[in-house]
Write a structure and sequence with these properties.
The chain is mainly α. The protein has one domain. Helices cover 68% and strands 0% of the residues. The chain contains 7 helices and no strands. The protein starts with 11 loop residues before the first helix and ends with a helix.
Length: 159
C-alpha cells in the first residue's frame, strides 16, 4: 500500500472502508481485514439467524456505498486497503456456521482461498462490475462459495 493513495482515517467513511485500519497493513491487507472481520463475527455469531441476516444485509448495503465513495475519494478502483468487502464476504461465509473455533478458522481459510483464487464467475464479475458494487461482488461470491464448502464439510465430517 506504500505507493497507493493513503486514506484519511479521520474520515468515518474511509475508516470503515479500511476496516478500522486493518486494511492499512503493508502486506496482505485483505487477510488482515478478514482477521478483523473474525473479531466482529464472534459477537455477531450470538445473534439469532434472522437478526444475523438483517445485519448482513446492512453490511452489504452500507458497504457498496462505503467502498464506492472511498474508491472515488482515493482515485483508485478497488484499492487494496479497502477491506469492508472482506468483512461482508466473511460474514456471508459464516451464515449458520458450524459451532466452535473449527468453523471460524475453516471459514476464514476457505473465504481467503476463494477470494484469492476467484474461480468463475467471480473473476469475470470482478472485471465487469464497476463502483462500490464491483468492489463488493467478488467477495460476496467468494463468501457464497466458502459457505457452500464449509456447510458441506460440516455435514460430511461433523466436528
Amino acid at each position: 500500500m506504500s505507493s497507493a493513495p493513503r486514506p484519511d482515517l479521520k474520515n468515518p467513511v474511509h475508516l470503515l472502508a479500511f476496516g478500522f485500519g486493518s486494511g492499512c497493513a503493508p502486506l496482505a491487507p485483505g487477510t488482515f481485514g478478514t482477521l478483523a472481520a473474525v473479531l466482529l463475527y464472534l459477537p455477531l455469531s450470538l445473534l439469532p439467524l434472522p437478526l444475523y441476516l438483517t445485519v448482513l444485509v446492512l453490511v452489504i448495503g452500507v458497504g457498496i456505498g462505503l467502498c464506492g465513495r472511498t474508491s472515488r475519494d482515493l482515485g483508485v478502483h478497488d484499492h487494496g486497503g479497502i477491506v469492508w468487502d472482506e468483512f461482508a464476504g466473511y460474514f456471508v461465509t459464516m451464515i449458520a456456521a458450524p459451532p466452535g473455533w473449527i468453523g471460524v478458522v475453516l471459514g476464514f481459510v476457505l473465504f481467503r482461498l476463494f477470494d484469492i483464487w476467484k474461480p468463475w464467475p467471480i473473476r469475470w464479475l470482478d472485471r465487469q462490475v464497476a463502483g462500490g458494487l464491483g468492489i463488493m461482488v467478488d467477495d460476496l461470491l467468494a463468501g457464497l462459495y466458502a459457505l457452500g464448502v464449509l456447510q458441506f464439510l460440516y455435514w460430511q465430517f461433523p466436528w
